[in-house]
Design brief:
This is Esterase. It is built from 8 helices and 12 strands. By secondary structure, the chain is α/β, with parallel strands linked by helices.
């Protein structure tokens, strides 16, 4: 077994490419001490962190009815429901189906709260606080406080015990695509203040550096990032869905601002030396981010592209990518 930490980018239905990549890494003998994910990446990350092996992950995905993910508020009439929900709930869809499916799948793996995903490793980064020692980190955006949330690490900001918080609830916060899904809320029981929480991609969709050591010691294993969004989207709908509703110019401008928020921070970071070297890039072109009604052959193609991306990455990678270049590292496992 070979260790690697993982960081999984968000991207709606494109996340099937991420799932294909994680499946292939599992098949190639990798285990993941820590996984971070945003939005769709958080869904796959939660299952893998909970201990799903390759057959288990395949079974979970087979039980996911993609057509039910855009779950309308009543009255469930196309366009009418979405338009009313945008005004009444700030999101066209509820997001309950995916939350409930994930909670069931995690429960079958014996995971409900972050306390079930604690890790106790004496050789972790010495600067990590006790509330940062978990197998899973989920990224979300608190638009009330104007900050990125790294859950469960940041639950103490709300006077909440990280161990007691629901993993499925955290993932639901992370997948709250602005305008598409109804935002989540997080309430501080001490102050009574409530924050509105949306998709982590608004501030960081691909925090590939999140597990990098800060104490000066050599990394024990590499961190791989699985990326599924293009650097330069051809249009805003590649990142923020149109919902089938024509937008007035001010709202179209707002959507483009959100697109920049989704990709701008991470694109700037990716230009730093060595960052792209540890990225598994999956070609997800030709599939819209909210194309949940895509035909089966297109979905299978996404999974296959994720698998192929891992094989290509490992074929050209023969060293621990996070290690100093002068320190030899073990070779990647032989192809299955």
């Amino acid at each position: 077994m070979v260790h690697a930490d993982l960081v999984l980018e968000g991207g709606g239905i494109k996340g099937l490419g991420t799932a294909g990549a994680v499946l292939r890494l599992l098949e190639r003998g990798y285990t993941f001490p820590r996984i971070a994910g945003t939005s769709a990446g958080a869904v796959v990350a939660a299952l893998a962190a909970a201990g799903a092996d390759a057959p288990g992950l395949r079974r979970a995905l087979a039980g996911l009815d993609l057509s039910r993910i855009p779950d309308r508020h009543p009255p469930a009439f196309p366009l009418i429901s979405e338009g009313w929900a945008l005004l009444a709930h700030s999101g066209a869809y509820r997001g309950d189906y995916l939350h409930d499916w994930l909670a069931r799948e995690l429960g079958a793996l014996g995971v409900s709260t972050f306390g079930d995903l604690r890790r106790d490793s004496g050789d972790d980064d010495s600067r990590l606080r006790p509330d940062q020692r978990y197998k899973l980190v989920v990224l979300a955006t608190d638009i009330t406080r104007g900050r990125l949330l790294r859950l469960p690490w940041d639950y103490p900001l709300f006077h909440l015990d990280p161990d007691a918080q629901s993993v499925a609830d955290a993932v639901r916060m992370s997948m709250s695509i602005p305008l598409y899904f109804q935002p989540s809320e997080l309430t501080d029981p001490v102050t009574g203040c409530t924050s509105v929480v949306v998709d982590g991609a608004v501030l960081s969709n691909f925090p590939v550096e999140i597990f990098d050591r800060t104490d000066g010691r050599r990394p024990r294993w590499p961190t791989f990032g699985v990326r599924i969004l293009p650097d330069l989207p051809e249009n805003a709908d590649e990142i923020i869905p149109a919902l089938g509703i024509p937008l007035l110019p001010p709202f179209e401008l707002l959507k483009r601002v959100l697109v920049t928020a989704f990709v701008g921070h991470d694109q700037t970071h990716l230009d730093r030396p060595g960052v792209r070297d540890r990225m598994i890039v999956v070609d997800t072109s030709g599939v819209g981010i909210t194309e949940f009604d895509a035909p089966p052959d297109k979905l299978r193609r996404l999974l296959r592209r994720g698998r192929d991306a891992v094989d290509d990455f490992l074929a050209r990678t023969h060293a621990d990518l996070t290690a100093p270049p002068e320190v030899p590292a073990p070779p990647a496992p032989a192809p299955a």
